[in-house]
């Protein structure tokens, strides 16, 4: 019978394209990945990979086995989830992906609750951008992920994945308390035309969202400073008076001389989703993860409202 570990290695190699990436994904060494592939080739009596320049690629047999093997692994995961669901006890190990503020604002506060509710469950995490996280869940490299989309745009997922919205995260305009807009109860988008901003890098999701605020105003944000992390953007607001569009979830503590002024449009928000493979829907581990993060999200929405 084909070894499941070897099959999982082949499927991961097909998805990731290199031995190094496959090793990182599975927690193996590159030598261990090569060993599993060689073992599979010996068992089948024909190679499943071949040399292509400095790397390797799948042979026609390898591609066929990977395609069918991915479905087999999906089915096995579903069987395991259903079996664990009968016991009702979350146990084992799951890896949860997320974007920076989602991890800080939802996953981290949920961990003590998870430890209390499911002491035999170990939760680890990775951090990445939403698009990459969806690929990681789909490929089986992680078990679930927190992702977001702006302004309730349609969330496009592979058919093997499912999701639910667990929070709606509004954003405010962070600014120095000496700024001429700082004493407003709310600001409008037209108030922001011509103001100096600090923004995430061009092409980043949050930068695209900032640009979108100005689209129907026939204008663009006046970005003079750039920073990936929101805490750095807040420091720009404190030090040089730049405005920053900062979501509430996971927002760093604001210094005394910085304030956050709400936008007058509540639709300017991002939806926070938890995503998992359909084959794990019955998993007690996924169920308790969703339950505890939903509890945290409910507290966040009350406190941020």
UniProtKB/TrEMBL annotation:
**Which Pfam families did the record assign?**
HTH_1, LysR_substrate
Q: Which CDD domains match?
A: PBP2_LTTR_like_6
Which residues belong to any copy of the HTH lysR-type domain?
2-59
Which parts of the chain span the membrane according to its record?
none
Q: Which InterPro entries match?
A: LysR_HTH_N, LysR_subst-bd, WH-like_DNA-bd_sf, WH_DNA-bd_sf
Quote the SUPFAM superfamilies the UniProt record gives: Periplasmic binding protein-like II, Winged helix' DNA-binding domain
UniProt entry keywords in alphabetical sequence: DNA-binding, Transcription, Transcription regulation
Give start-end ranges for the coiled-coil region(s). Answer: none
Q: Which family does it belong to?
A: Belongs to the LysR transcriptional regulatory family.
Q: What PANTHER family does this protein map onto?
A: LYSR SUBSTRATE-BINDING (PTHR30346:SF29), TRANSCRIPTIONAL DUAL REGULATOR HCAR-RELATED (PTHR30346)
State what protein this is by name.
LysR family transcriptional regulator
- Annotated organism of origin: Brevibacterium ammoniilyticum
């Amino acid at each position: 019978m084909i070894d499941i570990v070897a099959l999982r290695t082949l499927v991961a190699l097909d998805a990731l394209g290199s031995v190094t990436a496959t090793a990182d994904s599975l927690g193996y060494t590159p030598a261990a990945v090569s060993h599993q592939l060689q073992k599979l080739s010996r068992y089948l009596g024909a190679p499943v990979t071949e040399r292509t320049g400095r790397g390797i690629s799948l042979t026609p047999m390898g591609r066929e086995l990977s395609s069918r093997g991915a479905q087999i692994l999906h089915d096995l995961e579903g069987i395991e989830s259903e079996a664990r669901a009968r016991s009702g006890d979350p146990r084992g190990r799951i890896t949860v992906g997320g974007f920076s503020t989602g991890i800080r604002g939802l996953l981290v506060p949920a961990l003590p609750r998870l430890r209390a509710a499911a002491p035999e469950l170990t939760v680890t995490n990775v951090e990445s951008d939403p698009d990459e996280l969806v690929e990681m869940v789909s490929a089986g490299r992680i078990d679930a992920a927190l992702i977001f989309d702006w302004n309730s745009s349609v969330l496009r997922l592979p058919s093997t994945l499912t999701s639910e919205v667990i929070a709606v995260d509004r954003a405010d305009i962070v600014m120095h308390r000496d700024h001429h807009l700082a004493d407003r109860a709310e600001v409008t988008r037209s108030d922001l035309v011509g103001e100096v901003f600090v923004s995430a890098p061009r092409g980043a999701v949050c930068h695209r969202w900032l640009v979108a605020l100005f689209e129907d105003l026939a204008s663009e944000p006046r970005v003079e400073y750039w920073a990936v992390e929101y805490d750095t953007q807040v420091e720009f607001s404190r030090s040089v008076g730049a405005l920053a569009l900062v979501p509430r979830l996971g927002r760093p503590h604001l210094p005394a001389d910085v304030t956050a002024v709400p936008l007058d449009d509540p639709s300017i928000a991002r939806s926070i989703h938890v995503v998992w493979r359909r084959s794990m829907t019955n998993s007690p581990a996924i169920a308790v993860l969703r339950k505890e993060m939903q509890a945290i999200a409910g507290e966040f929405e009350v406190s941020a409202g």
